[in-house]
Amino acid sequence: MQTLLTLLSTLLWWVLYGSIVALFGSLIAWPVLRWSERANVVFNRVYLACLLWSLLGLLLVGLVAAHEGHVRPPYGPLLASLPLRLALVIDMIAGALLLWRLTPRVDARRIRPTSACMAMAAVTAVAFGIATSLA
Predict the structure, then answer these.
(1) How many H-runs (helices) and E-runs (strands) does the chain carry?
(2) How far apart are CA 33 and CA 95, in angstroms?
(3) pLDDT in tens, the chain (135 residues)
(4) Following DSSP, what letter does each residue of 51-96 receive, concatenated?
């Protein structure tokens, strides 16, 4: 019974933290997409793409941290590890694909893949800056 409650609690915290990260990510990605597309972009679809992307990213980083054994501070060695860098590359590609496939412009056309890549790069740059300053 306790294992089930632990699993349920972990899933709830994963979704909660994922939605917080997605909100900050979408608040960065949305203006970048509006600027690069030169058109209005549907915010709730940007949020949905960022939510799926953040859930995947938290899962990947958590798995790499558990594999590397760096689940407690300091996180400097984790940030310098090759598996984390590979996970971040996979995460950025998945984020760009999710944003490209899920986000329409107001005129119902899909955003360009280059705009999705630029938005993901901006979100990743800000997130990595925050992560390295906290580590």
Answers:
(1) 5, 0
(2) 14
(3) 789 998 999 899 999 999 999 999 999 999 999 999 999 999 999 999 999 999 999 999 889 999 988 878 777 788 888 999 999 899 999 999 999 999 998 888 889 999 999 999 999 899 889 878 876
(4) HHHHHHHHHHHHHHHHHHT--SS--HHHHT-HHHHHHHHHHHHHHH
The pTM of this model reads: 0.88
Task: Name which of 56, 26, 20, 25 is nearest 42 in CA terms.
Answer: 26
Q: Is the dihedral of CA 49, 123, 54, 17 positive or negative?
A: negative
Q: How far is CA 10 from CA 6, 17, 55, 68, 109, in A?
A: 6, 10, 13, 20, 38
